[in-house]
């Protein structure tokens, strides 16, 4: 007779695993259903442009800190040289007093007044009137020279130490801003990588078309330049059309925005500062309606600068991946201010 066995029940552990697997599958399906759609090319471009502007802000702050660092390093070096020379002079003075003490010792002992010369802190002894009474005029003069040199040396050492502290702060700022603009550029590249090769090519084509519209046709009009200086700067900048944008670069074969304007004016014989944040304070502020070729034009909260070239067009170094070019002011960013050097 056939035996009748009860069907084997699945173990509790197996039921738990199956339940968890099913729940995970449902969750993944739900996430996929609610996942953000892939951004369009125009959306990517808008986000990338914004990231480039943010990176440029950090770059300009980096440039400013770099310039400050170089100045501080020179100041620290000069102070340290001054301290070293002062110490040598002090050692020479002390050596002379030591010779005097040796001569007195050989003649029968060191006079108490000479002991002052050899003290580590003659300033304390000099304050004692009783000690002063024992000094000759010449000895007093020698001791006062030592005191003066010691005070000067202490002050110079303090100044050098303060400058070293400032330098450490600036180097920290440098690192922070470098990390910031590198992060923005990395994020921009990540967004660009979400596009297909064809979409990236189309973006590049549109970018080139925008440049040609203002540059290759050279519809700059016949506006009189701001000055002979402005005309010379603009002419120098025009020779750099096609050179790549490279952050922190100042030419002659690569530039960031303020690096280009600084270089152009240097070729014209005028030294202007390194960053957008300082260049905006170097000339006479003028209204947009008063713009003339050669004027500096600032955009996006003073984080970007270019040379006005006429007909509402600016010559500038746009952003990473682009080249020095002419471009309509309407496509660069929000207008901020204009300055005539």
What does this protein look like?
The protein is of the alpha+beta class. Helix content is 60%, strand content 8%. It has a six-stranded antiparallel beta sheet. Strand 2 (296-299) and strand 3 (304-310) form a beta hairpin. Helix 2 (41-106) runs antiparallel to helix 3, helix 2 runs antiparallel to helix 6 (137-192) and helix 8 packs across helix 9 (257-267). Residues 13-22, 25-33 and 128-132 have low confidence and may be disordered.
What key attributes describe this structure?
341 residues, alpha+beta, 6-stranded antiparallel β-sheet
Helix-strand pattern, N to C?
HHHHHHHHHHEEEEEE
Oligomer: single chain
Distance between the termini: 112 Å
- Rg value: 36 Å
Strand content range: 5-15%
Number of strands: 6
Shape: elongated
User: What does the average pLDDT come to?
Assistant: 76
* Helix percentage: 55-70%
Q: Strands across the major sheet, in which order?
A: 1-6-2-3-4-5
Structural class: alpha+beta
Return residue spans where pLDDT drops below 50 for at least 5 consecutive residues: 13-22, 25-33, 128-132
């Amino acid at each position: 007779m056939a035996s009748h066995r009860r069907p084997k029940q699945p173990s509790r552990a197996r039921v738990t695993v199956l339940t968890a697997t099913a729940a995970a599958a449902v969750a993944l399906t739900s996430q996929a259903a609610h996942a953000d759609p892939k951004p369009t090319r125009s959306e990517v471009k808008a986000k990338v442009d914004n990231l480039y502007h943010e990176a440029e802000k950090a770059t300009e702050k980096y440039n400013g800190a770099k310039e400050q660092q170089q100045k501080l390093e020179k100041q620290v070096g000069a102070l340290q040289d001054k301290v070293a020379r002062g110490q040598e002079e002090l050692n020479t003075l002390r050596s002379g007093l030591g010779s005097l003490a040796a001569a007195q010792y050989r003649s029968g002992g060191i006079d108490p007044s000479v002991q002052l010369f050899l003290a580590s802190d003659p300033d304390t002894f000099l304050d004692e009137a009783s000690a002063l009474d024992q000094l000759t005029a010449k000895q007093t003069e020698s001791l006062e020279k030592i005191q003066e040199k010691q005070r000067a040396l202490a002050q110079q050492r303090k100044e050098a130490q303060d400058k070293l502290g400032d330098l450490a702060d600036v180097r920290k700022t440098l690192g922070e801003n470098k990390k910031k603009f590198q992060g923005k550029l990395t994020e921009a590249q990540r967004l660009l990588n979400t596009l297909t090769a064809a979409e990236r090519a189309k973006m590049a084509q549109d970018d080139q078309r925008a440049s040609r519209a203002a540059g290759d046709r050279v519809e700059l009009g016949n506006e009189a330049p701001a000055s002979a200086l402005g005309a010379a700067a603009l002419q120098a900048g025009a020779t750099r059309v096609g050179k790549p944008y490279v952050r922190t670069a100042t030419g002659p074969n690569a530039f960031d925005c303020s690096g280009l304007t600084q270089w152009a004016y240097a070729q014209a014989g005028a030294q202007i500062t390194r960053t957008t944040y300082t260049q905006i304070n170097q000339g006479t502020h003028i209204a947009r309606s008063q713009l003339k070729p050669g004027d500096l034009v600032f955009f996006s909260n003073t984080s970007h600068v270019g040379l006005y070239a006429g007909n509402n067009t600016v010559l500038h170094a746009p952003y990473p991946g682009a080249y020095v070019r002419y471009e309509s002011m309407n496509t660069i960013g929000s207008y901020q201010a204009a300055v005539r050097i």
